[in-house]
Each structure stands twice: as C-alpha cells, then as structure tokens.
Design brief:
312 residues; alpha/beta; D-Maltodextrin-Binding Protein, domain 2; six-stranded mixed sheet; 35% helix; globular
Length: 312
Amino acid sequence: MKKTLIAAAAVTLAFGTLVSTSAHADEWPTRPLTMVIGFNPGGSTDIQGRVLANVMEEYLGQPVNVVNQPGAGSAVAFTRLANNRDQGYTFLFGGTTALTFTPIISDVAYEIDDFEYLAAVAIGQNAIVTSSEQPFNSFDEIIEYGKENPMTYAQQTALDEAIIRAIAEEEGLDLAIVPTGGGGGMAPLVLGKEVDFAYSGGTHAQYTPGGEMIVAAFMSAERSPFYPDVPTLMELGYDYSIEDYRTIIVPNGIPDEAKDRLIAAAEYASTHEQFIRTTEGNTFFPVVFIPQQEMESSVRRIRAATEEVMGD
C-alpha cells in the first residue's frame, strides 16, 4: 500500500490512499508466470489453482498462466519442475504426497531437496467416495459388499492406491484398480457406476450437495469440518491416514526476491474473498496460510514418518 501525497507550497493536499496490489516496474516479476498443476482439468486442485492464479495475478501485476501436466499422481509435473531453470517464473500448485510417498515406492527423477515449499494455502481433504446409486453408502458397507463381489476402485495417487490395496488384502477383497488423471477423470467413472468406489482429493464437493456422490470415509487423520458425520479410516480401525497440504512449490535455488513475492502473493490469496469462497465454499477445503519454514519442516516430517511406516 502506497499513499500518494501531492504538495503545493506550504499546503499538503492528501488525495487519499492509493491502494495498489500491482508490482512496481522494477519489482519481480517483470513478465508472465506459469502455474503448473499435476492433474487434469476439472478436479479440485485445478479449480482451486485457477482461482489462485487469478488472485496472484492481481497481486503480482503479471499474468499467471495455468498449465496442466497430469501423470503418475503429479510425479510427471514434479519431474519437469525439478529441471526448470527460469528463476521462479514457473511454480507448481498442488499436494505433497508425490514427495512424501511416491519416491519411497517408485523410481522418480526428483527428491524432496530439489524443491522449496513456499507456502500452503489449504488443507487437503482426502476422501473415499461412491455413487449414491450404489447398493452401499458407508465404507463398512463397501467392505461387506466386496467380500461377496469383485470390485473396482479408481485411484489418483500412488498413496491412495497403496492404502486401498493394503485394506483390500487385509479384508480379502477381489479388487481391480482403475487409474485416473485426477478428479475430473474420477467423477464420471463414479457417477456412471463404471467403478464401485474411488479416491477423491476434493472433487466430491461438487457432487455431494446434490446427492449424486457419497463420502464413505476420509483418509485424513481427522474428520472434515464440512462432513462431520463421516468417519476417518483410523476411526474405522484401519491404521492409515494422509496428511497433505495444497502448496506453492518452486525448484530449489530461485532468487530470494522471487520467493518473497510468491510468498506474499500466497498470503494475500489466503485472505482474498474469491479464493476463500471457491476453496471453502466450492471444494470444501479449509483455507490456511502456512509459511515456508513450517512447510519445509512438515514435508520432511511426513516423509520420515512414511518411511518409518513403510519400513515396518
């Protein structure tokens, strides 16, 4: 915020406060930016990301173009980002499970230290969903049905697939896994009953208010404030949970000025009515602002805990 004062002789006339969220000509950025999203259009990450891009554009004074790079639960996008050298003009918006879990079980061309985690702006809502037209409504009912019938499950990430495979093995289910490129690919499969149940990272919020889709359980450690009656897997007796944050991530080593400006834009977005309305009102994600130091620690803490569990 900058106040413009015009003085004439001994009299200073204040024409008011000129509020500008645009950058000065000599401030970073000086050209358009690219936001990478590691899933197909139409899912919750994409919906949130496009609104976030608009708000960040308002703050930074340069266009923020959204590019979808789906594949392997966003591992493809992270691989490309790790090799990016455009000094912060390309950044990723998305969850962190491709960093805290995928490298443990898959041969990927990146690691945690290849990136910096500038700020989280929403807390992940990881759900197991099904169609309201299926003969089951809860996760317990899905399991009971699966003990008598072959089932299909639509995955989106390596982590949700690993959890469901472990539960299926524990419960003796005959389960086929159907890969998708994100919530936009998952939703028609669930609604068309082409799969029995699925992972949703937030796309379900578009379909549960109208009763088309049901949340059977949450993979998060705690219940969602938007679905307080839906239990977590841990409450149901399965020792699995996903801790995830929608985060702005850049390649390691970008200039401090670029980091500072992106962090400031993220903080601005976390209080912006448009972003809050979409993120909480449309996708049912709690909006937060978690700064870089805390996110750097969180990503490494989750990774270490996951490695310990996988080692067991």
